[in-house]
Design brief:
Pfam families: PRISE
Number of strands: 13
Structural class: alpha/beta
Number of helices: 15
Largest sheet: 7 strands, parallel
Organism: Pedobacter psychrotolerans
Protein name: NAD dependent epimerase/dehydratase
Distance between the termini: 46 Å
Strand order of the largest sheet: 3-2-1-4-5-6-11
Amino acid sequence: MENIALVVGASGITGSNLAEKLLTKGWETYGLARNPNTEIKNLKPVAADLLDIDNLKLALADISPTHVYITTWMRNDTEAENIRVNGLMVRNILDVLSEKKSVKHVALVTGLKHYLGPFEAYASEGFLPETPLREEHPRLDIENFYYAQEDEVYAAAERDGFTWSIHRPHTVIGQAVGNAMNMGTTLAVYASICKETGRKFTWPGSAAQWNGLSDVTDARILAEQLIWASTTEAAKNEAFNIVNGDVFRWSRLWNKIADYFGVEAIGFNDDIHPLEKEMANDGEKWQEIALKYGLKEVSLSRLASAWHTDLDLGRPIEVMTNMAKSRKLGFTVFQDTEETFYELFDQLRAAKLIP
């Protein structure tokens, strides 16, 4: 049977990189989003609202995927609403596809908030797990929309007989516009503003993050693991961490990023300087920069997600991720993290998203 992929959230960092990888491997690939990505050659766009089941049924009427990759979520004001909305989105897509009886595997992308807690209690006292983070770490005794999404997949798998995999990346680094969690582009935009205005490239986070070890997830290596897990028998019905495979300290990388952009770096200086506050009044300045250099995106909020970068860089503990589980099962792809950032910055410049 031919592999037919449905990438749910194909306009985001994870979904767009996954769609491109699937297409290079010869898969028939559909990309579902409210505003589908039409820039990826040979990707078949599907416009649909995951919260409108009748709309979903109509959009998917002639599509019978063998593999479903759920890479999207929606941010809401409270965790209770996150649970309701994000759980419903997963349930709706799997309910609509259930009638087709074509699905063999469903892969769900969540993240390290599985271990660190939801936005409302993120990496706070009482919710600080042992690091490096391991897949067997039990769920925290607190509401978390990632758990709700997982439970929807488990229930549908039991009903319909497909296999599943759960993927928990650290901060995903890759190119996308309009993404709610986009550290790599946020830092590139911040550095570009610093360059243009003569401001210092000031570390926004905690001492623990500045001095401690960390890791991140290149969107391309996440795509590789998603495909591997969905096509490897030993990887079925398992949850996997996924990071590049190396570790780094921000105390080094911050200076390397500053060097790339030709700006002066300021490291941790006994206080946190949130990017959300630092960039709060930069919307108009970004418009000026975009017009001056002929950039494609004049809206700062479509490129930078300072609030999420602050969450990651302000954590009170160092955060590393154990990759032994998938390594033992044969997933051996590796990515150098410094190259991840430099290659992203090069891509952003080539795409006329930063000067």
